[in-house]
Hints:
Number of domains: 1
Largest sheet: 7 strands, mixed
CATH architecture: Alpha-Beta Complex
Radius of gyration: 17 Å
Shape: globular
Oligomer: single chain
Structural class: alpha/beta
Number of strands: 7
CATH class: Alpha Beta
Strand order of the largest sheet: 3-2-1-4-6-5-7
CATH superfamily: Spore Coat Polysaccharide Biosynthesis Protein SpsA, Chain A
Helix content: 40-55%
Amino acid sequence: MMVANGMRICAVIPVYNHETAVGDVVGGLLSAGLDCLLVNDGSNAVCTQVLDGLAAAHGGAVRALHRVANGGKGAAVVDGLREAGRLGYTHVLQVDADGQHALADIPVFLEAAARSPDSLVCGQPAFDSSMPRARRYGRYLTHVWVWINTLSFDIPDSMCGFRVYPLRPVLAMLDDERVGLRMDFDIEVLVRLHWRGVRMLWLPTRVTYPSDGISHFRVFLDNFLITRVHTRLFFGMVRRLPRLLTTRKKHA
Length: 252
């Protein structure tokens, strides 16, 4: 999809056994005028068949990229970002396959990206009562660590996977850095891009947990990985402390 300023945007959707909800998500994205890249992260045979069916039904507007084994949400998104770059897209809308994101907000996100093509446009979620209380508390703890690791309040929410990436700085960061490849990805990529001075725009968006009743957040493993990424980022922040303090002083 051509938006403005020579921008070409597609949607990247990481998929792991979301055969029930993904069709509606793809329909919403196509209605918004976006090509779709479905990244199958080692899903079961039923889901794989659904994804291939969607690609066949919509021709070049929908592509299915298959990973042999499940590597995690981050691994699927990274593969999608790289494939989008290879196909000549300049920007990617990341959206989850389970229907939790408000696709009606897509035009607002695309307009913001068109106005500021070098910026990362991020969703700042408003949750309804479907959000588990434990996830709400854990999310706030992550916010605190992100504020520490960026020495700022510039990132009000690092876990919402509804965002528009400018591919050039994101792919450059992925070439230079090792990032977490599961649920820790969304957090780490924002912090590292913030360190690199990538501007971020925040737009309110409604989030519902999830439409197909399937959540792949594993409480113990993913919380461990998120804790580990916060620790790694903290020591990364310490190494960058003089430069970060100088940057904060310039913008004060």
